[in-house]
Amino acid sequence: MSSTFGTVFKVTTFGESHGAGVGVVVDGCPAGIELSEVDLQPQLSRRRPGQSDLTTRRDEKDEIQIYAGVDGGITLGTPIAMMVLNQDQRPADYDEMANVPRPSHADYTYRAKYGVSAASGGGRASARETIGRVAAGALAEKVLSREHGVEIVAWVSAIGSIEIEPPPEGTVGRAQVDANDVRCPDSAIAEKMIEAIQAIRKEGDSLGGIITCECRGVPAGLGEPVFDKLEAMLAGAMLSLPATKGFEIGSGFEGTRSTGSAHNDVFVKNARGLGTATNRSGGIQGGISNGEPIVFRVAFKPPSTIAQEQETADYDGNTVAFRGRGRHDPCVLPRAVPIVESMAALVLVDMALRQAARRSPPE
Asked: CATH assignment of 4-359, given 3.10.450.50, 3.60.150.10, 3.40.50.720, 3.40.190.10?
């Protein structure tokens, strides 16, 4: 099913960008977890539109409500239903786009697949769909923290050609990331990124960039050879996000310039028993976590809907002059940080539950 993610911890999102609301059903969450809207709202507030002048001006509070699966603040082990009502829809903004597929957007491909596409906004292809992922991810993070002490932190590491030097592993926290609107932990570079986004917005254009994510405290042994390798599942999760175009883990593409002798992570004794002296593997070897921090990067393209006029074609093949309307991010990176963290949490909690099932004796 195209809207369901996970094997044990199953997440199904629903809703369109300009419909009544968007939400998620989570099936497979363990019973007995303390849970309320207060636990989920911080990540949703980091994702919501209108939080700074670097993002879309659509004004949504994105206040989450839990409708099922929780009683007295405790998860029941039954499906958990959560939803955010849309409050600032403007479907009329898209009337003139009804017969013109937006360049590099999903309008044409959705129509090619289903024979119909959402009349306004991006429908299921809109980043608004990710609200359900973030709500489910916040729940997954709570399970991972309680059971394994896992911490997940992502940040903007590049906007266009502006990028930061990789910080030492384990040194960046969410408070540091959220200290500025662009969510870059290097304050001096963050100012340059902010200036670049503001300038490109005035030009009616957009910018892409890279988000780096660290998953700390992940126990060794997570991952399912051969086809459900942990890095493969992370890659699939990240590339399922709107506007993503690339994924690399550990040394990534840069590692191809190295030699085996220089690239190998040799083992050393540590408090866990064994660790590695370096982490070019990015915390995963043979598709299975090795106990080191899992470090990966996700590339996001510039948003496709821009205010500049472009020459394109309508659905009948006629050449037309097109200018994007509506309210859109000039750069998705600042709001994508909690979305990347949430998808990482969903992969890890599903793998952790699969591993726990493997170790549990049959009744």
From this structure: 3.60.150.10
